[in-house]
């Protein structure tokens, strides 16, 4: 009985270890979706990295691990990085807002054209 349990546990462990090698590959993501996700993620990742670096420098300075001149230089460098990342994110959001506005105008225009034709037909009669 103990041998059967040991074999069952061994097979279970082997299955657990080998599962990642034999599972199905994830479906391919369309290139357009992938590119837009990367473009959106990069500024956000940079911004978060700059923020965390600022927090670490602040903590190190408060703990006395770095001197004030070093603290000021590092703080200035990371502030510039954070501002660049924020600016890139803002510009990307502005581009997305413009695209949304264009699509909304395109969706509204066919409705406006149909309404104008209807009023033109009514005035002709």
The oligomerization state is single chain
Low-confidence stretches: 31-35
Order of helices and strands: HHH
Relative strand content: under 5%
Provide a count of the helices. Answer: 3
Gap between N and C termini: 95 Å
Q: Helix fraction?
A: over 70%
pLDDT averaged over residues: 79
Q: Profile the largest sheet.
A: none
Q: Assign an overall shape.
A: flat
Question: How many beta-strand segments?
Answer: 0
Structural class: mainly alpha
Rg over C-alpha atoms, rounded to the nearest angstrom:
29 Å
Topology:
Elements: H1 2-22, H2 31-63, H3 68-124
Helix pairs in contact: 2-3
Please characterize this protein's 3D structure:
This protein is mainly α and 125 residues long. Helices cover 89% and strands 0% of the residues. The chain has helices at residues 2-22, 31-63, 68-124. α2 (31-63) packs antiparallel against α3. The N and C termini lie far apart (95 Å).
Which key phrases capture this entry?
single chain; 125 residues; mainly alpha; flat
Short description:
The chain has helices at 2-22, 31-63, 68-124.
């Amino acid at each position: 009985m103990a041998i059967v349990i040991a074999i069952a546990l061994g097979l279970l462990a082997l299955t657990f270890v080998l599962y990642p090698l034999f599972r199905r590959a994830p479906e391919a993501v369309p290139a357009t979706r992938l590119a837009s996700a990367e473009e959106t993620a990069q500024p956000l990742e940079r911004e978060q990295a700059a923020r965390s670096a600022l927090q670490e420098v602040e903590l190190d300075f408060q703990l006395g691990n770095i001197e004030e001149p070093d603290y000021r230089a590092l703080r200035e460098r990371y502030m510039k990085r954070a501002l660049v990342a924020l600016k890139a994110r803002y510009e990307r959001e502005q581009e997305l807002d413009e695209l949304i506005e264009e699509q909304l105008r395109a969706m509204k225009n066919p409705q406006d054209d149909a309404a104008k034709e209807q009023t033109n037909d009514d005035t002709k009669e």
